[in-house]
Amino acid sequence: MKVQKGTHIPLYHQLRILIQRKIETGNLLPHQPIEPEWELSKKYQISRTTVRQAMKELEKDGLIYRKQGKGTFVSGPKISQKFVTLTSFTEECIAKGLKPSAKLLEAKLIPANLEVSRNLDVKRGEKVIKLYRLRFADRKPVGLNLSYLTYRLCPDLMGEDLREKSLYRIIEQKYNVKITKVKRIMESVQADDHISKMLRVKVGDPILKIEGVAYLKDEQPIEYFVEYYME
User: Fold this and answer.
1) Which of 23, 57, 75 is the last residue of a domain?
2) Less CB within 10 Å around the terminal CB: N or C of the chain?
3) Does residue 194 share a domain with residue 156?
4) How does pLDDT run across 165-184, given as a tens digit for each residue?
5) CB-based burial, 121-160: b 16+ in 10 Å, e otherwise
């Protein structure tokens, strides 16, 4: 397949489809590097701007990912497209006979960016709580959790002890609400420098990435999260 000029289909979209088909047919495998922008530009005789736009679309759809200083790679396969569960990390650890705990790395109020506002269904710039935690099972680091919570629904949350208690249990008891469901999407990715240091794994080791949203009744989002766990 070639990128054809002079058609009604934008060049960046043609390149995006070309690379997507290579991924779907197995010509490009998970975590395999993709040709750099200058090579794609030369190969298909299109501008670097056009190539960059195609890559942004592929990254937005989760088909590729970037590693600073190393290039662009094919994303790992999706383990599950979407499922609903209420089981928390704390509950799962206890069920396995492990003692859960967490180290709070960051807790602050920030204005919601576009991604956070879309997932929490709040206005862009509205106050949200950002929590960044390193999670342990029997004192061994097993996961990283980045959470964004709707501030107006849980305004005093940062004053609570988030090291050993379940976040959802705290929210339900403190604010007299009920988390009715949690939607999650899972995929396998490679550990970058930061994740490798925090979870004590090698750079490039397979890591389970979980992204999701927790809801109250009436489909009211209260938490948007991104988590990384050792596989």
Assistant:
1) 75
2) N
3) yes
4) 788 889 999 999 999 888 88
5) ebeeeeebbbbebbbbbeeebbbbbbbbbbbebbeebbee
